[in-house]
Amino acid sequence: MFLSAPRLMRNTNARGLAKRFGAILSLLIVACAAMAQTVLTQAAIPNPPIPAGGWKKAEYAIARTETAPKIDGILDDECWKTATRADGFFRFQSPEPIHEQTEAWMCASKTHLYIGFHCKDSHPELIRAHETQREGDLSHDDWVGLAIDSQGTRRNASQFQVSPTGVQLTQLEGGTADNRSWAGEWKAAAHRVADGWTAEIAIPFSILRYPKNTKSIGILLIRVLARETSAEIWPYVPPEGNSNPMPFIPGFTGIEPPKFAPRLVVLPYVLGVAGSPNSMTGGVDLKYPISTTLTGVGTIFPDFRTVEQAVSDLSFSYTEKFVPDRRPFFVEGSNYLQDPFLFYSQRIPFVDEGAKVVGKEGNTILSALATNTGQAGGQTAVMASAAQDLGLYSQVGATVLSNNSGGQPANQLARVSGQYGFMQNGRQTSLQGNLTGSWTDGSVGAHNDWVQLSSYAGHGKIGGNVYYTETGAGFVNQLGLVPEVDLRGQGFNISQYDNFDKGKLETYSVNLSGSTYDHLSGGFFHDDVSINTFAMVRSGWAYEFDLDAGKYYPYVDNTVTTAVSWNQKTLLQQGRLSYQFGHREDQPYQYASLSQGLLITKPLSLQLSVGYEELAGVGNTQTILTGTYRLNSQETIGGRVLQQNGNIDAYLSYGRRVLHGTDVFVLVGDPNSPRTKGQVILKLVFPF
User: Fold this and answer.
1) How many CA atoms lie within 13 A of 345 on its CB side?
2) Coil, strand, or helix at residue 145?
3) Which of 523, 463, 462, 528 is nearest to 490 (CA)?
4) pTM of the predicted model, to two decimals?
């Protein structure tokens, strides 16, 4: 329940800080806007031509073909002569014109969608293509691709990308694990030509999630030049779609996907350990598309020892830090439930048997999971969630969770949530809220309530939100990341960012936030106000400056953070140095970190990360050295040395992920142990 109206920055100290930081924010916005105005004034080039009638919810027709092109990156196939042509790409998120134009062609058969690109480039020597691994990082390379809204909801899309060297990246709607048999296969190839490069893509309808009797899908073609800030797209997206183009993706007719034929994917494995003790185990993962939009996943005795879990840094925090989960069973469909306060999969450390159903059926999102283990005292966890999209910007939903762990009382949770949103004159405004209740051993516990009003209008315009929340002292969620209970408070966030395609300044952001909380049981809890700034110049250097001040009863905290980054336009040679100093818990505090990527040879790269924290004269250190040797697009040798306060864990690995045949993983050591283990692990996965 909302027991009192929000009183932002009620604390006198916080109000004074907010005024000072507000003044700083205003000056920074004015300064950045002045720099931006200089850039735009110097580049007074007219906008690219807009299609007659501007944007409208029209549909385009895709040509049919009976002959599939040979996917070799060379656009000499007969089908391209009669394919639907897309030329005159448009600049996305920028008034600048296109400097390097793109042509594309599309056609469809009964089983596949085909796309061809001709990426013209007057400076082919500047084309970037550093990544060599399938499903690697293309964020610093040139690439072309397409976003496909296969259900026509204008809410979500899958994305397929290919670089000038033919490296592919798949981002399926909802999220999926990285096994190629598991995710599904599509083909792509690229070829260098005198005036740039060309690419061909073949996407089978079988890996898309489309409703029965589909005759139209949403498509947006994309080209990214790594040396430019903004992407190129086709068809045209109006300015109000700059921050979220999904509501404006047009439909394409002329396709007739085949009748859905579900195929069970089975990934059995055997795993042998030579060390202390020696062992041999096995298990299986299963994936079955219940429909074109819903996917069932099962696992029996999964083994996650070959998965390198994320490592949290040493920086000070009063509460537990979020650590992402990389285990394939939990990654599948994870985008459908992204609130760790509600469900945090790290709370399920062991799984003997597990099953889940995830997907989006039209405007309905479903997610359900159940796991069981007899390890560490035993645990049975259940989660089920459903949400209904209402139009383009509104949604209602409900979630229930249950957890039974050995030695702990049984815990249940239920939440109802809602969002009402709309877009007007390019600004998206929404009101969100949820009510959550918890039960322990069948007894009603405390509640958590939250409401937020937000308004954003994309780059160059101020946006922000205000929120109110309260959590009872007896609130328990054993499956969630709940950092604090017994609180009632409110907060705000004001931000602005912008990108530029010309001039020295490429992007900047300024963010001002504040919060103040009391205990629900009575008495002050904590407050905070902070300002965060970021700017990156076109050469790849970036600068950050942050101020943070507040009170966490009974301590007064204040810190200053500065950071500089370099080589941000490169894939494997980026670096960053940051230093934070001030007071934590009324004690002198400092935290320094350095990271640097090193490209030794083209297949061999290293990543070094060093951190040092000191509070009240007591220091902690952390050093991480990671190495990767890319044998080819499917095979990698890697390793890591992790040092934390004198404890050292080192391991070496070999991995091979293929579409057809056996996946092989070899570990010498244990990536998730606090100390180096003298063991060798061999894992073989046999997909069928």
Assistant:
1) 22
2) strand
3) 528
4) 0.82
User: How far apart are alpha carbons 681 and 305 in whole angstroms?
Assistant: 9
Q: Are 563 and 578 in contact (CB under 8 A)?
A: yes
Task: Name 161's bridge partners.
Answer: 145, 169
Residue type, 457: A
At 569-578, the pLDDT tens digits run 888 899 999 9
pLDDT at 6: 32
Instruction: Please give, one letter per residue, the 3-state secondary structure of 595-616.
Output: EEEEECCCCEEEEEEEEEEEEC
Which run of H or of E encompasses 494? strand 487-499
pLDDT for res 687: 80
For residue 618 the two structure tokens come to 């007591």
Q: How does residue 5 score in pLDDT terms, banded at 50, 70 and 90?
A: very low
Contact by Cβ (8 Å): 115, 200: yes
Q: What span, in angstroms and rounded, lies between the C-alpha atoms of 381 and 370?
A: 6
Q: Would you list the DSSP string of 209-238?
A: ---TT--EEEEEEEEE-TTSSS-EEES---
The string of DSSP codes covering 87-132 is: ES-EESSSSPPPSS-EEEEEEE-SSEEEEEEEEE-S-GGG------
Cα 8–Cα 9–Cα 13 angle in degrees, nearest 5: 175
Q: How far apart are CA 498 and CA 458, in angstroms?
A: 8
Query: Which pairing describes strands 63-64 and 102-108: parallel, antiparallel, or unpaired?
Result: parallel
C-alpha span between 287 and 295 (Å, rounded): 7
* CA distances from residue 414 to 338, 395, 396, 400, 476 in whole angstroms, order as listed: 16, 17, 14, 4, 11
- Strands 575-584 and 379-390, by their bridges, are unpaired
How many Cβ atoms sit within 10 Å of the Cβ of residue 53? 7
d(CA 485, CA 520) in angstroms, rounded, equals 9
Distances (CA, A) of 502 to 38, 91, 228, 269: 10, 13, 9, 52
Report CA torsion sign: 628, 346, 350, 289: negative
Q: What does 471-523 look like in DSSP terms, one character per residue? A: E-TT---TTS-----SEEEEEEEEEEEEE-SSSSEEEEEEEEEEEEEE-TTSS
Position of tokens 């979020």?
322
Question: How far is residue 448's CA from residue 71's CA, in Å, rounded to a whole number?
Answer: 54
Is the dihedral angle over the CA atoms 502, 507, 510, 511 positive or is it negative? positive
CA–CA dist 91, 222 (Å, integer)? 10
Residue 442 to residues 379, 412, 421, 467, Cα–Cα distance (Å): 17, 8, 36, 31
Q: Is the pLDDT score of 586 beyond 50?
A: yes
Cβ proximity of 451 and 481 under 8 Å: no
320 contact partners, CB below 8 Å, separation of at least 6: 481, 483
> For residues 629 and 638, is the Cβ–Cβ distance under 8 A?
yes
Confidence of residue 148 (pLDDT cuts 50, 70, 90): very high
Q: Residues 483-519: pLDDT tens digits? A: 999 999 999 999 999 988 888 999 999 999 999 999 9
β partners of residue 43:
none
For 569, left (φ over 0), alpha (ψ -120 to 50), or beta? Answer: alpha
Cβ contact 492:466 at 8 Å? yes
Element (H, E) at 402: strand 394-405
CA distance 626 to 196: 35
